[in-house]
Automatic annotation (TrEMBL):
Active site (catalytic residues): 187, 355, 388
Pfam short name (any one): Hydrolase_4
Protein name listed in UniProt: Lipase
GO BP terms: lipid catabolic process
Family: Belongs to the AB hydrolase superfamily. Lipase family.
Gene Ontology MF: a single term: hydrolase activity, acting on ester bonds
Superkingdom of origin: Eukaryota
Length: 412
């Protein structure tokens, strides 16, 4: 017990050191009354440090920066890779939308070399690739009236990603391509998709859904770090202390961590284990690449919502406790019913036995909800030694996950 208490205390101290409140040192962003003007103002230019310039064009692929504005005013960055390295006509290509997980951004799909990164592999295999970036991440900090310095900017949880971010990105890609979309999500990217599909929000735009490390039910989550946050109400404490932005990426801390990771005999893949489970297939050098770009900010309210899921064992909207009647007109938050997912929707689920965030027990609960799914529309893949990050950063993911994934897409 004493050891556990010390771990929790250490984590609280680390969080307090690394978190920034919404009133911070970030440069104040432009505000605009006109949504279209605001979108133009935030659109990355070819010469900046956007994802296209830094991560895609450097590998020899064409890339376009796009922005889409949600109904509640957030201006999201998207990247389009229209073709593979060898080129080819983009008009005949089926669109695929990639959506990252918690504390990450679209660079998730570009961290590995072109022959291993899913975004490049899809482009080289004939797909038109679109990469999403959720609100609050580095390239999606825009808003039509709010600055990230404003506490109100961070007043959201994954409910808003379901209600606003996902519909905006789906509809934008559909408008641009005039085709239905293959969706591929990892971690939080699977949760928002499952929730949206359960509400029939985006089925008209969806061709199929691929869920890597799927998260719906979370009360069996075995991650020591995630459980400590939830069971000790750490996110709630931060929120009540008026810390609205959760930011682990402070330059001084990252610099120190990178220096430690480069020392002989130090394998920094191990420090990820307490959060993600023991990843089988990460090259130790990938941690240095990861720290160049991640982790990204999220809202503290989002972490509160995730903590509620772990404690309560439900897939439900944010629990406002005594204010639920005011928000929902009922004493308990509405549930996202996983049994409402259409049986005929093509699904590909890939999960790992070592994953501490998408725990196998929670995945089995999800699969139980899908027990009536059409047999030829549900493909399940179980990898005994895979943990959470192996699905997007593992050296073996290409042959283990992406090749079967693309075989699935070709059948839809």
């Amino acid at each position: 017990m004493k050891m556990l208490a010390n771990k929790i205390l250490t984590f609280i101290i680390v969080v307090m050191l690394f978190c920034e409140s919404a009133v911070g040192t970030r440069t104040k962003l432009f505000s605009a009354n006109n949504v279209q003007d605001a979108a133009s103002a935030f659109a990355p230019s070819p010469g900046d440090d956007g994802i296209c310039a830094t991560m895609v064009a450097t590998q020899g692929y064409a890339c376009e920066e796009h922005t889409v504005t949600t109904q509640d005013g957030y201006i999201l960055s998207m990247q389009r890779i229209p073709a593979g390295k060898s080129g080819g006509l983009s008009g005949k290509r089926v669109p695929v939308l990639l959506q990252h997980g918690l504390l990450m951004d679209g660079i998730t799909w570009l961290l590995l070399p072109p022959g291993q990164s899913l975004a490049f592999l899809l482009a080289d295999n004939g797909y038109e690739v679109w990469i999403g970036n959720t609100r609050g991440t580095k390239y999606s900090l825009g808003h039509t009236s709010l600055s990230p310095d404003d506490p109100a900017y961070w007043e959201w949880s994954w409910d808003e990603l379901v209600a606003y971010d996902l519909p905006a990105t789906f509809e934008y890609v559909r408008d641009q391509t005039r085709q239905k979309i293959h969706y591929i999500g990892h971690s939080l990217g699977t949760l928002v998709a499952l929730a949206a599909i359960s509400k029939d929000l985006q089925l008209k735009n969806l061709r199929s859904a691929v869920l890597l490390s799927p998260i719906a039910y979370a009360d069996q989550m075995s991650s020591p770090l995630a459980r400590a946050v939830a069971e000790n109400f750490i996110a709630e404490a931060l929120y009540n202390a008026d810390l609205r932005q959760f930011n682990l990426k402070r330059k001084a801390a990252v610099k120190v961590l990178k220096a430690v990771c480069q020392k002989p005999g130090v394998d920094c893949t191990h420090w990820l284990t307490a959060f993600t489970g023991k990843n089988c297939c990460l090259n130790s050098s990938i941690v240095d690449v990861l720290l160049d770009h991640e982790p990204q900010s999220t809202s503290t309210k989002n972490l509160v919502h995730m903590s509620q899921m772990i404690r309560d064992g439900t897939v439900a909207m944010f629990d406002y406790k005594d204010e639920n009647m005011q928000h929902y007109g009922q004493p308990n938050p509405p549930v996202y019913s996983m049994t409402s997912i259409p049986d005929e929707l093509p699904l590909f689920l890939s999960y790992g036995g070592a994953d501490a965030l998408s725990d196998i027990k929670d995945v089995k609960l999800l699969l139980k909800s899908l027990k009536n799914h059409d047999g030829d529309k549900l493909v399940l893949q179980y990898l005994d030694d895979y943990a959470h990050l192996d699905f997007v950063m593992g050296e073996t993911a290409k042959q283990d996950v992406y090749d079967p994934l693309m075989a699935f897409l070709r059948l839809q």
